Amino acid sequence: MIALIIILAVIVILFLIFIGIYNGLVGLRNQVKNAWAQIDVQLKRRYDLIPNLVETVKGYAKHEREVFENVTKARNMAQQVASAGPATRAQAEGELTAVLGRLLAVAEAYPELKANQNFLALQEELTSTENKISFSRQFYNDSVLNYNNKIQMFPSNIIAGMFGFTVSEFFEVKVEAERIAPKVSFT
Amino acid sequence: MWEQISTNRTRSIILVVFMGAVLIGVGFALGDYFFGTPYGGIAIAAVVWIIMTLVAYFQGDSILLATAGARKIEKKDHPRLFNVVEEMTIACGLAKMPDVYIIDDPALNAFATGRDQNHAAVAITSGLLQKLNRDELQGVIAHEMSHVKNRDVLLMSMAAVLLGTVVILSYYFSRMIFFTGGRGSRRSNDSGGGGGAIIAIVGILFIILAPIFAQLLYFALSRRREYLADASAALYTRYPEGLASALEKLAASTNPVAKANQATAPMYIVNPFREKGRAATDLTGTHPPISERIRILRQMGHSASLKAYEEAYEKTAHSHVLPHSALASSTAAVDARAPSPEGAVEEPDLTARTRETQNMLFGMANYRRIDCSNCGTTLRLPPNFTAPAVRCPHCGTINAVK
User: Fold this and answer.
1) Which domain CATH number covers A62?
2) Average model confidence (pLDDT) for chain B?
3) Which segment of A162-166, B50-54, B170-174, B236-240 scores lowest on mean pLDDT?
4) Looking at residues A10-25, what average pLDDT do you find?
5) pLDDT tens for each residue of B298-332
6) What are the tens digits of pLDDT across the range B150-197?
7) Angle, helices B223-237/B290-299, rounded to nearest 10 degrees
8) Within a domain: residue A186?
9) How far apart are CA A90 and CA A101, in angstroms?
10) What are the chain B neighbours of A105 within 8 Å (beta carbons)?
11) Where in the numbering of this chain does the Peptidase M48 domain appear (chain B) (predicted)?
12) Residue A151 belongs to some domain of the structure
């Protein structure tokens, strides 16, 4: 009788632990999904801002054709891979960030443009969107790290294996120039 | 952060129970005096206690924001501040962005309030908004957001409201002693001798207790949570230097916050009180010394992790500060980022920021703005301005008011 109770108790406890780990995994997976959705929102926001920004700068700096073309090209490239995995996307987004930095650097040479209210507002929006992208990437990567740790560490790895929880990919931008403003000189 | 959250919950409950005990004690004494039986007094005290707790819980944040003179702003009022709050919401992974409030005060300070992560608000003085560049603003907002994230806000708001009530009650009690003290002795034949004495004792007790409550509150709202919020701010922004240099500016200011009081002081990021004309550098009591907070942040070097903060703290204070659960939840090494590039991301300077903030405050007071047709000076017209034309004080041009 006592043996039976002990066995039952052990089974119940194991089952509770199982539920706890399983729910924990689902929670982490959802957090990764949410964090990814947040990155997506911010990237889309940036695609929407770019044409306005290009138009505004064009009005003042007509001769920077090459920069405009590069920005538009990078934007279209990034949009094309919008449904791809984190690695491909991060690559395209990194390049877009770099050319955007160049576009804003061009604006430095046009004092009238720098004083334009519309441009200032766009610039604030873009700066903030860049920040939001990097903060959401930061949060996404932290979430992925937690999730992957859980999947690979004992004992949660057993349950993760049983229910097909797979390791998520980090969103890593390899482009070094990303946060460094390119210096442009007009001499 | 579970450890921190559950201590906050426990402390909130202890606080509420403690206040209940005090109130019922007072009800007992007053009931005995006025009704001749303690039960009536206890019943009234219980009702007061329940109402007070419910009000503190559900309305605490709005009461505090109102007493601080804070006004809610929209994105169009100050896009940069709004964006920074949005950025920090994303960085700390909150589901809902807190409301943004501004306090029209040249003093430098900020606080967060609310009852949970979905009902929260951050408030900043206009003085601070003018003084900080984007990186510093991020640091300050991140500090306030981590109070929301760590769920310090409920305890802080409840404590401030409940304590505020005690302070007010003690004030009225001190008046009542002079008032009923005399009357009580005249009525002493029908209420049985010591009535006047009892109420006098209760009143005096209350007056003595109120400042002690304030002290207790300061201990309950332990300095540790300020350190944890600093550490979290460094982690969220990945830039300890931002908060460090913001704290430097906060420390150097000599303006006290006009609408801060004993009860609300612990909510602020730095002590809102100043000795006359003295900077708050190491004014302690409610807050850890600012110079120490700055030193710890600066010692983190190129890392922004909680672990790096803990190590930096150990170097200065030779003890531990962050809860184990917080340290365990972030094991990875985190590198600090570079400061925001100047130039490509044009940062408004102090003059531009001041103008921006002034425009916002005038706009919120319903001032109209027109530009002088000759020299371009911006003229601000008060809401009750009805004249058809206005003269530019710079160049003397008469501008028609539409």
Assistant:
1) 1.20.1440.20
2) 80
3) B170-174
4) 92
5) 998 788 888 888 888 888 777 887 877 777 766 56
6) 888 888 888 888 877 777 776 776 676 666 654 444 444 444 455 566
7) 40
8) no
9) 16
10) 343-344
11) 78-299
12) yes
- Judged by CB atoms closer than 8 Å, whether chains meet at A143 and B93 is answered as yes
How many C-beta atoms lie closer than 10 Å to residue A179's C-beta?
19
CB nearest B91 (choices: A114, A123, A138) = A138
Q: Measured on CA atoms in the order B60, B63, B69, B70, is the torsion positive or negative?
A: positive
Residues with Cβ within 8 Å of residue B97, at least 6 apart in sequence: B85, B86, B89
- Can you tell me the mean pLDDT for B352-366? 83
More confident residue, A66 or B168: A66
Residue carrying the six token digits 């000795």: B275
Torsion angle, CA of A26/A32/A35/A41, rounded to 10 degrees? -100
Domains in chain B: boundaries: 1-365, 367-402
Nearest to A150 by CA among A55, A22, A44: A22
- The C-alpha atoms of residue B83 and residue B90 are separated, in whole angstroms, by 11
Closest residue by Cα to residue B321 from B333, B309, B304: B309
Is-contact A160 A80, C-beta < 8 A? no
Catalytic residues of B: 144
pTM metric for this prediction: 0.83
Kindly state whether residue A184 falls inside one of the protein's structural domains: no
* Partner residue facing A127 (CB), from B238, B338, B345: B345
DSSP states along B194-239: THHHHHHHHHHHHHHHHHHHHHHHHHHS-HHHHHHHHHHHHHHHT-
The answer to whether residue A58 is domain-embedded is: yes
The residue among A127, A129, A134, A152 with the most chain B CBs within 10 A of its CB, best to mutate, is A127
CB atoms within 10 A of CB A3: 7
**Residue in B with minimal Cα distance to A102:** B344
Structurally, how many domains does chain A consist of?
1
Burial of B169 (0-12, 13-18, 19+ CB in 10 A): buried
Beta bridge partners of A23: none
Show which residues on chain A lie within 8 Å of chain B, measured between beta carbons: 31, 35, 38, 42, 101, 104-105, 108, 114, 120-121, 123-125, 127-128, 131-132, 135-136, 138-139, 142-143, 145, 179-183
ipTM of the complex: 0.81
Nearest to B238 among A132, A138, A181 (CB): A138
pLDDT in tens, B88-116: 999 988 889 999 999 999 989 999 999 88
CB B131 within 8 A of CB B109: no
In degrees and rounded to multiples of 5, residue B108 shows phi and psi of -105, 115
Using a CB-CB cut-off of 8 Å, the residues of chain B touching A139 are 90-93
Rounded Cα–Cα distance for residues B32 and B349 (Å): 65
CB hemisphere CA count around A136 (13 angstroms): 23
